[in-house]
Amino acid sequence: MADSDKNLKLWNTFAEKEGLSEEQLSQFKRYAELLLDHNTRYNLTAIETIDQVIKYHFRDSIILRNACTVGNFSAIADIGSGAGFPAIPLKILFPEISMLLIEVTQKRQNFLQTVIDDLGLKDMQIYTNDWRTFLRTTQGEIPLFIARASLSVEELARMFKPSSSYNKATLCYWASWGYELPEGGPFKNCSFETFSYKIAYKKRKLVFIKSSVV
Questions:
Q1: Could you tell me the CA-to-CA distances from 163 to 24, 153, 186, 208, 212 in Å, in that order?
Q2: Does the domain made of 54-211 have the CATH classification 3.40.50.2000?
């Protein structure tokens, strides 16, 4: 089977399984094209094939909608967004949600802006300072924070400090199957829920963390 036929089959299967509209499928295709093109110059990801992009970036990002009602959140912040995962795939599926991408590396910021402009994504902003500065200097109504392969969960837990204006928000952390959160410390006043899933041969889980202090 020629590569073009193989890729067409991959995209059609992805669209069918995820219930994508023609517009959404077109946006995912263009996103993958931009990612693989820019990756040759800026080393954005170790993944280099359409098959792997679909499985380990796109499907692994949008798995969130299987674990919670994503559409109930008015705004989402992606901590350490990198090349845009999981925020941009989620934005394609939920264009009405306001998205904030927290990313300090300029080459990644430039790539994110390119994707946002090229795909015509609205109400999506890039925050260019680091996570600690964000917590220290900003305030806002962001009910959900997401983090996939970025900072350590202990560093992310800073959002639950009493001084943080986001300490009542929920954090969703992409973790390996066997990962166990440390007890006590920054999580002593937090509650947890997990959602286990499998992408191809990889077993993973989402960990939802929320302050239990009323």
A1: 39, 18, 13, 21, 16
A2: no
> Rounded distance, CA 159 to CA 108, Å?
23
CB 92 within 8 A of CB 27: yes
- Exposure string of 173-188, with b = 16+ CB inside 10 Å and e = fewer, is bbbeeeeebeeeebbe
Q: Where are the domains of the chain?
A: 54-211
- 49-61 pLDDT tens trace: 999 999 999 999 9
pLDDT at 2: 61
Beta bridge partners of 191: 210
Burial (CB count <10 Å: 0-12, 13-18, 19+), residue 76: buried
- Given a cut of 50, the residues of the chain with pLDDT beneath it are none
Q: Full-prediction pTM beyond 0.90?
A: yes
Burial class of residue 162 (count of CB atoms within 10 Å of its CB; 0-12, 13-18, 19+): exposed
